[in-house]
Design brief:
This protein is 39% helix and 12% strand. With 503 residues, it is α/β, with parallel strands linked by helices.
Length: 503
Amino acid sequence: MVDRQSSPPNPLTQSPNTFAAEPSGTENVRHLDPKNWAEFRGIAHTLLDDIITHIETVADRKVWQSPTAATRARFAHPLPLGPRPLSEVVDDVRSYVMPFATGNAHPLFMGWAHGAGTPVGMLAEMVAGGLNLNCGGRDHVGLEVEKQIVGWMREVFDYPASASGILVTGSSMANFLAVIIAKTRALGTETRKIGMRRASPQLVAYTSREAHGCISQAMEISGIGSENLRRIEVEPTGAMNLEALRASIAVDREAGLQPFLVVATAGTVNTGAIDPLCEIAAIAVAENIWFHVDGAIGALTALSKSLRSLSTGIEMSDSIALDFHKWGHVPYDAGFLLMRDEKVHKDAFAQTTAYLQRSDRGLAAGATWPCDLGPDLSRGFRALKVWMTIETLGAERIGGAIEHGCELARYLAQKLTSNALFALKAPVALNIVCFGIRGANADAVRELVIDLQESGLAAPSWTILQGETVIRCAMFNHRTTKADIDLLVNAILTHPILLGCSR
């Protein structure tokens, strides 16, 4: 019989004050929670107010400013061995961190494909940090939230119920996982053990010359090698040339090689061009090649009724990579991979180890965990910020913000074409505008862009199209207005560098 008088007390049955009491003895200095919760709460509330104000007033500040020498020195200190008051650390955040961000929350940040985030997503990050869930596996609500995101993306892209998905850092990682999955499908699961040495014939993949560099990198780190990626020529629109694709596949087959993957792009990084997805899907089916779509930039146009037709054919793909942190307006990072067939997905990553055994009940319940669908066992609660953003704003409102970005791109293009000083260098397919300045060489273009960035007024970027250095503006920020576009164009027109250019 249990001696209830001598049994240790159950903390779950104690009064709140007893349960919350400080540990005794040496434990008193070993726990890491605040000693004064009221003081911590006050500091935290003030900091929350500060960051909300930072977002609310972002347009009133410079787009970007380089970290000062004092800021760089602040983050070159030796490892701190002792504690420091939280209030002082938070003061450092205000002084040395908040003023020197990338600037992508500002409406005149246009240089790269960076989303601007929303205050809703920020709140989700706060909750996710507090809960501190490991979403690699186990039976808890974090996995249910992620399953909801997968279900929504099945609906958006008309994928079957057999589809699976996983949140990752970004589309670079999603594209890498897709290459691994396609490789495993082509060579069989045995290749996970024996590697590529006995792989015969040699695998080859295809993508366009305008595809993102992460596709080539994925071929390298997968062990297949970037030399076995065929960079297919593009049309004047920037989209993949179908005849060149067919010809390249035929040449490789004739040489005894094994085509295993074609990566189409829905929104190229340079110009936003969309490959002919329906036609590429048909080629992939005829050739028994895995059809993957890198939709980091343009896949979420599917949320817009007026833009959805631009990505027709994406629903025919075997897998899709996309970024919620771009046009989904979710805080970084929030990439996503959607897979048509969960079994093929699991074949590439699932492993049987003692510490990952499953049960039909308890915390280890569940047939498929996220760690079966990718390489990460330790994963944060990314799904919450995606879920809260979509639940709060709704797909139609997010789609409207995407339409707004495309409208602004067309507005900028119209302003540029009305001035003989400028020349559009690529069709405006979505939200990216690339243009040159007549009479300005590459050095002048780069100097102009850097001057704008350092002034804090605007942050475009430059890229190279057909050997020419051009200015690139990407409209991903839901806060950007036509007035911001006018300000950008006027800033360019009044820059001293243009005084020597043809007018």
